[in-house]
Amino acid sequence: MTIRGKRHRLASGAEGSDKAKNEFHRLMAAEGLAPAESNRRGLKVCDVFNLFLAETDRRVGRGERSRHTLDGYVRFLKSAAKEFGQLDVADLKPFHVSRWVDATDRDWGPTTRFNAITAVKAALSWASEAGRIGADPLAKLKRPKPKRREAIPSDDQVRAMLGAIRDRAFRDLVELIHDTGARPGELIRAEAADVVEQGVPVAIALLHHKTAAKTDRPRKIYLNDRAAAIVARLMEEHPAGPLLLNMRGNPWTRNAMACRFARLREKLGGGPEFTAYALRHKWVTDHLSGGTPLATVSELAGHADTTMVSRVYSKLSERSSHLQDAARGLKRDDHG
Question: Based on the number of CB atoms within 10 Å of its own CB, is 322 exposed (0-12), middle (13-18) or buried (19 or more)?
Answer without folding.
Answer: middle
